[in-house]
Every structure is written in structure tokens, then in C-alpha cells.
Amino acid sequence: MNIKIGTRGSKLALAQANAVLESLQKAAPEITAEICVIKTKGDILQDVSLLQIGGQGVFVKEIEEELLSGSIDLAVHSMKDVPGETPEGLMFAAILPREDVRDILVSRGNVKLEFMPKGAKIGTGSLRRGAQIKAILPDVEIVPLRGNIDTRIKKIESENLTGVILAAAGMKRLGYAQTISQFLPTELMLPAVGQGALGLQVRATDTELADLCARLNHATSAAEVAAERSYLRALGGGCRLPIAAFGLLEGPRLSLEGLVAAPNGTEVVRDKVWGAIDEAEDMGKRLAAMIMDKGGKKLLDLVC
Predict the structure, then answer these.
(1) Cα(23)–Cα(152) distance, integer angstroms
(2) Hey, which residues does 107 pair with through a beta bridge?
(3) What is the set of domains in the chain, with CATH numbers?
(4) What's the per-residue H, E or C state across the chain?
(5) Which residue, 24, 167, 41, is CA-closest to 100?
(6) d(CA 150, CA 193)
(7) For residue 105, which of 94, 182, 187, 242 is within the disulfide window of CB 3.0 to 4.6 Å?
(8) Which pLDDT score is estimated for 236?
(9) 170-222 confidence digits (pLDDT tens)
(10) pLDDT tens readout for residues 64-112
(11) Given this model, what pLDDT does residue 125 score?
């Protein structure tokens, strides 16, 4: 079997795809595979905010189209980039063991978030991160940021930023952990849905490849991500509002925490539910209903 693996062309995306390729070849030494780089709308339009070009899905749509057309056989996605709804004809055959879900700060002089001066400039391209930072530090200025990890870190100097917020998972996968100034606890900064997880997407009819990918599935990570994605779908999926969620399986007990916030951080609605691993889908729906009842619906109605 020769497998064409589709991915974005960033340094991080290629590192992730190559790691998947190695894992597949360990599971089935007889296969051959190649990496196919696909440019997405989000990669091409680097000077425009993600909201202006469509929000969630801008790093995924073209890859899914290539998968549906048969140009590639397998897509490797960062699950935080994937919309709540999966296109008809496609499925996720595996969720790989999840990396660190937290966000991190890289700052000038290694200043911690709690010691940021008034008017500090914090770079991020994420509404979710910006809203949560503003909720705790109303005086900071959020500076919109695009580009890969290297580009964002360099902008601390080139744009005179106090610091930038990035995902711990990408920093660790690229070997940049030594540049991290601070890991932000989930109590302070709830992660994006699916953050730190990689998903292997195939055509629903490709049962042989789906079975092969399933050998790499990590049941704990899959349950956590399933709960988070159920929550996202129940809130309306691609809404252009700060949405965050964090599922955590500890023993037989699965917890799911979620939030919805005003973009400027002035209102944050947050809650948490617990359940069994096989209740992941239902937990997402329950949490979304609770968030909506506590004020989330008012925020969603204003923006979505």
C-alpha cells in the first residue's frame, strides 16, 4: 500500500506529518508513503486576519478537498484547526497521543504574565487568547499576529512587543521549549478545542487505511477531544467568538470545562461537567446548554 499524506507546508506541519509517517511505518513496515504539501487559504493570505478570511477551517478546507478528490489518502490535522463538522465522506480514523494542551508566553526579558506592565503589548492571532488575557489584564494591548512560530517570536523585537502567546504543543514538537518564558495554567487560559492533538482523517470508504490508522489511536486523547468537539458543535461550531474547552480523563472520570467570552474580555462565561468516558458526546451538549443558560447565548446572539 502506498499512502499519500496531505499536510500544510509549515515547519511544524511537516514535522507532525513526518512523525505520523514514521508511526505508520512502524505499525505496518510493508507500506510506502509520501508527504504531499497542500497550501491552504490560511497559509496563502498571511497579511489578513483569520476572521476576515473565514475563521475556523482556513487551514483545513483545501486539504479536505484533496482528500475527497482522491489526490491524497490521509490528512494530518492539528485538531484545534478543524471545524466542528466533518464533511460528508470523511472521517477521523485516529487521534494521536495528545501533547501539552496549555498556552505559553514568550516574553521580552522573560517577564511573567502577572508582572506585565500597564500598556504591555501582547501578540496573538487568537480571539480566545486575547479575550482571556484582557479578562485578567484589562490594561494590556492585544496586537494581532499571524505567521509561523519563528515569525511570531521574531515580532517581539521587530514590532516592539512585550510578549507573544503560543501553543505549548507546537513549541515542544519543534524543540523550542527552552525559549518559553511561562506555561499558562488552564485555570488562567483555557485552551482551544482539540489543542495539542493530531487527527488522522481518511475517506469513510477507505476501510483498509482507516483500520491501519486506528492502530495509532489513543483512546484517552480521543475521548477528551470528542467531548470538546461536541461542545463546539453544540455552540454552533464556527462562530466568530472566543470559545475554549478542555477535556481531561483521570482514571474512569472525564471532566470537561468550557467557556465563551466577549472578544474584549469584559464578559466570560465558564462552567464544567463530569461524566464517564463513553458519555463524551453527551457531556459536550450538556456543557454547552449550561454555558448558554449562564449568559453564553446572549454573547453568541450578539456576534454569530
Answers:
(1) 30
(2) 163
(3) 1-95+197-217 (3.40.190.10), 103-184 (3.40.190.10), 218-304 (3.30.160.40)
(4) CEEEEEECCCHHHHHHHHHHHHHHHHHCCCCEEEEEECCCHHHHCCCCCCCCCCCCCCCCHHHHHHHHHCCCCEEEEEHHHCCCCCCCCEEEEEECCCCCCCEEEEEHHHCCHHHCCCCCEEEECCHHHHHHHHHHCCCCEEEECCCCHHHHHHHHHHCCCCEEEEEHHHHHHCCCHHHCCEEECCCCCCCCCCCCCEEEEEECCCHHHHHHHHCCCCHHHHHHHHHHHHHHHHHCCCCCCCEEEEEEEECCEEEEEEEEECCCCCCEEEEEEEEEHHHHHHHHHHHHHHHHHHHHHHHHHHHC
(5) 167
(6) 23
(7) 182
(8) 84
(9) 999 999 999 999 999 999 999 999 999 999 999 999 999 999 999 999 999 99
(10) 999 999 999 999 999 999 998 899 999 999 999 999 999 999 999 999 9
(11) 87
The predicted model gives 251-268 an average pLDDT of: 95
Any idea which residue has 507500506 for its cell? 31
Helix (H) / strand (E) element for 153: namely helix 149-158
CA distances from 108 to 114, 123, 171 (A): 14, 12, 17
* The amino acid at 247: G
Give the residue from 253, 206, 235 showing the smallest Cα distance to 301. 235
| Sole residue written with cell 479578562 | 135
What does the buried/exposed string (b/e) look like for 226-258 if buried means 16 or more CB atoms within 10 Å of the residue's CB? bbbbbbbbbbebbbebbbbbbbbbeeeebbbbb
**Which single residue is written with the C-alpha cell 469513510?**
204
Q: Which amino acid is at 227?
A: A
Q: Considering the chain, what percentage of its residues have pLDDT values greater than 70?
A: 93
Query: Which residue numbers are catalytic?
Result: 81
Distance CA 64, CA 154 (A): 31
Is 50 exceeded by the pLDDT of residue 53?
Answer: no
CB-CB contact of 210 with 88 (8 Å):
no
| Three-class SS state of 68 | helix
